[in-house]
């Protein structure tokens, strides 16, 4: 069971929704803006890279394979410290001819009234392709 205050989960849910929407519409600066200034995107498991800082994050995200849609399915939040939270999320990402299941792990921090991603790590759980895309 989670050990968070009642106001944290809706703030995290807002970041989850915005992240998926910004990625779906190629709004990379906005997506990077969901991270802290020195935020880290650890994509080592899928893309072999770790990227840090908003400008580098926006550039990195803009060069990834184009997805048709990101569909966050579930997430949960656990408090680590007073202003730090761990978030585990499952995302289904639809590509032309493929569907991927991705695990997201976020370390988030509350800055003022906003939740921001301090670190994001992604890992592929599975991928299904149709015959035409092989």
UniProtKB/TrEMBL annotation:
<dbReference type="Pfam" id="PF13577">
    <property type="entry name" value="SnoaL_4"/>
</dbReference>
<dbReference type="InterPro" id="IPR037401">
    <property type="entry name" value="SnoaL-like"/>
</dbReference>
<dbReference type="InterPro" id="IPR032710">
    <property type="entry name" value="NTF2-like_dom_sf"/>
</dbReference>
<protein>
    <recommendedName>
        <fullName>SnoaL-like domain-containing protein</fullName>
    </recommendedName>
</protein>
<feature type="domain" description="SnoaL-like">
    <location>
        <begin position="10"/>
        <end position="96"/>
    </location>
</feature>
